[in-house]
Amino acid sequence: MNYPGFYPDLFRVTLPETALEVAALLVLVIDLGFLRKAALKVRVAVAALIGIAGCGAALWALQCTARSGLSFDGDVLLAQGGYTQVAQTGILALTILTLLLFIGSAFTRHAGEYVSVVLMAAAGGLIVSSAQDLLVIFIGLELLSLGLYILTAFAKSSGKSAEAAMKYYLFGGMSAAFLLFGFSYLYGISGSTNLNKILLASFYSSASGGAPLLYVALVLIAAGLGFKVAAVPFHLWAPDTYEGAPAPAAAFIASVSKVASFALLISISTAAVHLFDGVHELRFVAFTLGPPPKYLGLWIPWSLILTVLSAASMVVGNLAALAQISVRRLLAYSAIAHAGYILLGLAFFSHSNASANAILYYILTYGLTTIGAFGVVDVVQRATGSDRLDAFLGLHKRNPLLAAVLLVLFLSLAGIPPLVGFWAKFNLFAAVLGVSAGPVAFALVALAVALSAVSLYYYLQVLKRAYVMPAVDETPIKAHPVTMAVLLAIAAAVVVFGCFPALLQNWIAGF
């Protein structure tokens, strides 16, 4: 990287990530250097507020800095604007919400270290969502993943937290190996680490007989990225991690990491579809309604892999959730099912903005709702000592506001109108049918709708205990004022975005 102007461009493009890293360092200096003897509540509040300020500075840098992308020798390393900026804005907003929930927590005395790791993981998410080069993608994923492993183990007094972190770390290391093997094969096929050059080379490779190696690479990459989004059969880490991790960390894993990973998948799918359509058009012109192309490059096998992962995730996630007695594990299998819905949108992706906008709308609203759901579960678990279904008995009497938030969030996750979850599913399924009205797409959308009805059943099992079944203990459940304010704000946003869906849709479409 020795051409003039590269490092100034690098600093300009990565200014949001730099703001997060500076905030992470500042948190450590203030917490360990000046507040070591302060009360834990003070240290937690100060660390969280500094972290929120860092996210605010990153948001300002993201919105105000002209992000024209970063290139080297003609190859794009980090993308610009568009869906990338939407995903990065969502990552920072969701990080702020998880830090606000941390203010009401007391699972660790290492407040500065916790917030610092959250900020560094968020910086990794920003890199992943904009990466256009295999090396940059891997660096971003590792920065994000290492932070998530540490956050999972932060409840040092909990055996479940340590067990979950170890399982998460071992599965993560194995998935990273699969991903690197896939990347190495792609580099061998194309001679480049740039995403666009790889996709172009994949077409010529398949046309010259290199398709088997290309398919092996795609399967390995799907395994690596499938782990990141908890898609079946790479989901085994998710239930234990969601159950054992501290609630703010579990909320961060379920929201921020999903947004970053799916933004990367959107990037791959967008480039693959553009190349596929371009080759289709060239061959159509060249052969004038002649036979269809024999070799279709990367998109067709990639779409097939995503379709299989989508169907498996929807079925396994929803059916396994029916058997759960832990609400955290229920949310984990629900997350697997929602990953299946989003993968369906990626499997039937189009070069128009409709598909990308529908997927972004889904992952942002799902992330928002999931953070609120984990916040409610954390309040109940700290009051009752359990996250089992029966811990929610009589919640509407013990804390009516908390029960109302739970009602709104779970009905939204089930896709009940007029909440935002309904519009997320409606837009996604409409985008799928807009790309393909064939029997396969229609059957998969019908399966997704049917399984959404199944999901309503297990969400209602929690709500039935909160509103219908009598309470064993009617002692009031109290929540930290900041936690309660955040949960009410999230529930209000779910209702407002559901009643006025164009607010968020127009904002996403404006990039």
Concise structural overview:
It contains 20 helices and two strands.
Could you characterize the architecture of this molecule?
This protein is mostly helical. The protein has one domain. Helix content is about 75%, strand content about 0%. The protein has 20 helices and two strands. A two-stranded antiparallel sheet has the order 1-2. A hairpin with a 2-residue loop joins strand 1 (about 70) and strand 2. Helix 11 (about 245-285) runs parallel beside helix 13 (about 325-345).
Number of contiguous helices: 20
The radius of gyration computed from the alpha-carbon positions, rounded to a whole number of angstroms, is 23 Å
Q: What is the chain-wise order of helices and strands?
A: HHHEEHHHHHHHHHHHHHHHHH
Judged by helices, strands and strand pairing, the structural class is mainly alpha
Average of per-residue pLDDT values: 87
SSE order and pairing:
Blueprint: H1 6-13, H2 15-33, H3 40-64, E1 70-72, E2 75-78, H4 82-103, H5 111-130, H6 134-152, H7 159-190, H8 195-207, H9 211-228, H10 237-244, H11 247-287, H12 299-321, H13 327-347, H14 353-384, H15 395-398, H16 400-414, H17 420-435, H18 439-467, H19 481-499, H20 502-509
Antiparallel strand pairs: 1-2
Helix pairs in contact: 2-3, 2-5, 3-4, 3-5, 4-5, 4-11, 4-14, 5-6, 5-11, 6-7, 6-11, 7-8, 7-9, 7-10, 8-11, 9-12, 10-11, 10-13, 11-13, 11-14, 12-13, 12-18, 13-14, 13-17, 13-18, 14-16, 14-17, 14-19, 14-20, 16-18, 16-19, 17-19
Annotation keywords:
about 500 residues; mainly alpha; two-stranded antiparallel ribbon; 2 strands; globular
